[in-house]
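Our preliminary data section would be incomplete without showing what the modeling component actually yields. Below, a chain of 201 amino acids is followed by its predicted structure, encoded as tokens that our downstream tools consume directly.
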Amino acid sequence: MMKNLKLTLVTGLSALALTACSGSEEAPAPTADTEVVQDDAMATDTMVATEATGDKTIVALAQSNPQASTLVTAVTAAGLAETLSGAGPFTVFAPSNDAFAKVDKATLDGLLKPESKDKLAALLKYHVVAGNVKSGDLAKMIADGKGTATVKTLNGGSLKAMMDGDKIVLTDAKGGKSTVTAADMVASNGTIHVIDTVVMP
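Predicted structure:
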């Protein structure tokens, strides 16, 4: 009986989360200080915001999302879980599992080895910005910069952000491009924006 009750509750909450992410016209409008860069095509992305309460840290939020399992493994291997669970605030451009799948397997496996911990940490810090930067903030920075904004990352490098239609696109130090596919996943210590390609310092 208790198992059935729990299952019903979990199923109900899952349905509620899916409804909230469905992009229907009845969904509440974003608040004035937030510009959600997500259209119907983006709603099909496999890694979407399932937590709206913001009561989980960035790491806990990522751990609760099956499409962030590679990122969680990498953050743990790099010894950054404690940092990204701290007070922050941090803004994380989080590659989905599909984004990590684009990286050469031998390269990724090599980065996850204990002897590559520092190199992996530097790569992951290139995906993190100090402060709580929502998509609306980024869009304003891009507009103020006449089409381009530069954001400093925790590893000392920088990413260039620009708009492609209503989507935010990041350009890394090597000229590679990554698109934000799900924006403004709110954590208790910052914000996660899901990206479709790992950015390289």
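The first helix runs from residue 2 to 20. The longest strand covers residues 177-187. Preliminary results of this kind motivate Aim 1 of the renewal.
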